[in-house]
């Protein structure tokens, strides 16, 4: 027996019923659809202090661009721009503050000239590990202070990446004693640079692209920059062969997404949450990738003739002392007080007691 054909009228009724069901939506569905269609497309320019080709430091910034697009379903477009494309690297802070740029990718320590306290949110000499640093930021009051510092400059900052302990730097000649720092011309970052100044070094802060030429031409005698995988990419081994550890000055380093405060406040709650989710993912990515790449990088550096050194216990212990100074500089250290009123001693290096109070 063949298949019996359905009456024409039955098919017409069923089609009509299906059409009615598809066209009749609940008020809640209509409201959600309207919100999606009315949601503005966020289009931001993000100037970077690091090139996108630079592993970890730059690739984390580039990842913000792709993650924001994916997490928001394409409604948030944060376009990454290479250093100097929109503004010189060290002028990004002002450009965002004034509203000339919507966003920037950097590390808070670069803005010590604008807001000295921001150095606390990059790295601390003999400071906390990455997980301890994040715990303080999220649950120890760090976030509130960080946002307060930035908001008074019309910037909203988000910690958006982290890297593991760095190396202690590249030197053209071995560093055997504290006196070897006296008169040394060196590029050094953040609060660690202040410590070396106390030992008589001539410290300057150069952007990433300016370091190798200065080291190669002898404008500086040494430099620190980042972890071995990054330093390998920067090519420092071609101009200096003495590579020192441990990275006492940067046990972990925060990176940030800076956003013009007016632009941030113009976002709805969903968009703000999406950008915060981007940064949470980026923190995990930077930490795990940063740890994973170092062994192969150090092996390659060794093959290129780099000599690995460890600073002597005497040098490291001196750096931990309040008001650390070269023995040739007899000026007594200034007293330091902790936030709770206790005196700062060398037994509390994790909170930066190795840095003099007049920094």
UniProtKB/TrEMBL annotation:
Q: Which residues bind Na(+)?
A: 225
Gene Ontology CC annotations of this record: tripartite ATP-independent periplasmic transporter complex
Q: Which domain of life is it from?
A: Bacteria
Keywords, ordered alphabetically: Metal-binding, Signal
Q: Does the keyword Signal apply?
A: yes
The entry's protein name is TRAP transporter substrate-binding protein
Which one GO biological process term can you cite for this protein? Answer: transmembrane transport
Residues bound to substrate are 166, 187, 224, 250
Q: InterPro entries this protein is in?
A: DctP_fam, SBP_TakP-like, TRAP_DctP_sf
| Record field: transmembrane | none
Instruction: Cite the PROSITE patterns for this sequence.
Output: PROKAR_LIPOPROTEIN
**Entry's PANTHER family?**
EXTRACYTOPLASMIC SOLUTE RECEPTOR PROTEIN (PTHR33376:SF5), PTHR33376
Molecular function terms from GO: metal ion binding
